[in-house]
Amino acid sequence: MKSSGLRVLLVVFVCLLFAGCATQKAAFSPDSLDGRLKSGQLIQKANNFDVLFDKSSSMDDPYGKTTELALARDVTERMITTIPDIKLTAGLRDFYNDKSHLLYGMTAFDKTAFIAGMKTLQWGSGPTPMEKAIDGAAIDLQGKAGNSAVIIVSDFENIPGVDDLQPAKVIPAVARLKAQYGDRVCIYTIQIGKFPRANLVIDAIRQEAKCGFDVNADDLATQAAMDAFVEKVFLTTPPPPQAAAAPVVQQVQEAKAEAAAPAVALELANIHFDFDKSAIRTPDREILKGHADWLTKNKDYSLTVEGYCDERGSTEYNLALGERRAMEAKKYLVGLGVDEKRLKAISYGFERPLDPGHNEADWAKNRRAQFVPVQNK
Length: 377
Prior knowledge:
4-stranded mixed beta sheet; single chain; 14 strands; Rossmann fold; alpha/beta; about 40% helix; 12 helices; 6-stranded mixed beta sheet; CATH 3.30.1330.60
């Protein structure tokens, strides 16, 4: 994103033109999210975050009554202000003019210090080495435990033959980051402005990252919208509470009833799958062998094999993936000697999640096959 004297003069003119027209900024605060954390409605999801801030020359372009860079600085500061009181490790990294600098962190998150670290984000300059910032984030996150969020704030301007933001360099950098950290790192993009080709880079980043989402800065103007964004990045809902143990007398009665009942498994263990895969994992083969043994002992029962996915991807894709998972489990049981006529495969895609959360631990529970015994009539 190459700079020019004319562009700088234009930015100065716009800033002077609207200097007296600025309105009072809405006050942003973490009050709503803090309250929901204290009440137990939400729990922490991310342990670390790194903001990658575009300070290239195109960010000096006018946007509304301000500039893209001023809007990016404002939305980043409002995000920082909205983050509730949770323990985080944080970093702020700029990228411009073929280089990237760590302006804050990686260190214990302090809102005042983080915002002070933004003081150099005043003017844009030169091209857009986003890939260097992403590679820098890989270094920033080294040795950091838990889940991490990488948040890219940029206009994502890419003009063939003119602009220096190159998807051919950015996407391999994302792949390197994911290869190093896997599902422990998710990437979130905040687009500044409305550059029409920005989605070419943003969509490619999202597909390579496999977790995270994108949003436009204009859609984060209200406290409610910023609350929702911060919640999705940093927080999640807690797992459902475990049922209290039944009284001893009730346990004895249930045990006697179980002993008197036929040898029927009310619930057969689930098996699970790697992300975007349908292959049966080695530990799950023993589970399926147990299911085959159960079917051998209970010949008046059949099984419905249900395939499920996590929430990432389209409805159509996940229905197909869920079907492949159910069919692989069915084929494995047939290979163990189960009559194929006693097995039915069905896919529910990402419907009916076991865990409603939005992190890898939750998604891993939802990538599964379930086995429902059905008594033959």
